[in-house]
User: What shape does this take?
Amino acid sequence: MTNSLQTVSRAVALLRCFEGGARTLSLGQLTQIMGLNKVNVLRLAQSLTEEGLLDKNPKDGRYSISYGVLALARQLFNPDDLIARAMPILERAQAATQETVTLNLREGTEAVIIHEIVSHKPIKYSLGVGYRADLRLGGVGLAILSALGDEEVARVLSTRAPKFASGGAATRSFIEEELAVVRTNGCAETTGQRELDATGHAAPFTGPDGNVLGAVGVLLPSSRNRDEVHRQRCRKAVLEAGRALTALLASGRASEISTQEGAS
Assistant: This one.
């Protein structure tokens, strides 16, 4: 490998140090993860900072992914375009259940709501666009986590146990048991994990490369979920929505590649 290609490869490897969900990393942590000489890692970090792909906190010297990387990623996968094209799928799920429906994307070890259709019922649950949740709790988080590879799941589960809404800790063994059920059913169902008296149904969807991108969720008061007919209706709705979104993304219609735009 030439020096220039090696430098590019190492720069990409440095950016990937943030894939596990870490918001900030020190130079020492980057050096340890990459297994390279500290001087070389410092040079790479400085170059990426100058190019606007990393940010360096002037107070503590820690590095984080900058909006420059997000801008590049947005050209490859446009969330606004995804929402527009996913709307018929989300609206079908909402019409079938009459409950709040959410479209969620994975960001590291969290799931983020990027769109929400709120139930018209007088008693309902709504978390709001931008709401973030640990992947280890709730229907949406577990649906996404269930679709990740074993190594990624192990990394997510290796951190401190999250707290249920009731205050108790979600142990690793409990989460692993939950994941086994989700994988068997193809969808997740949880009650009271993130919000007391709330039930969440969710199913994952994948991108064109087959990797999980997020999940479609249905959120409702747990009292309504006790109706077995309605419970199965919600479960069916998220399964169908997850499959439909996966098919949509596989077709390439929900992503816009900048090179294709330039050729048009």
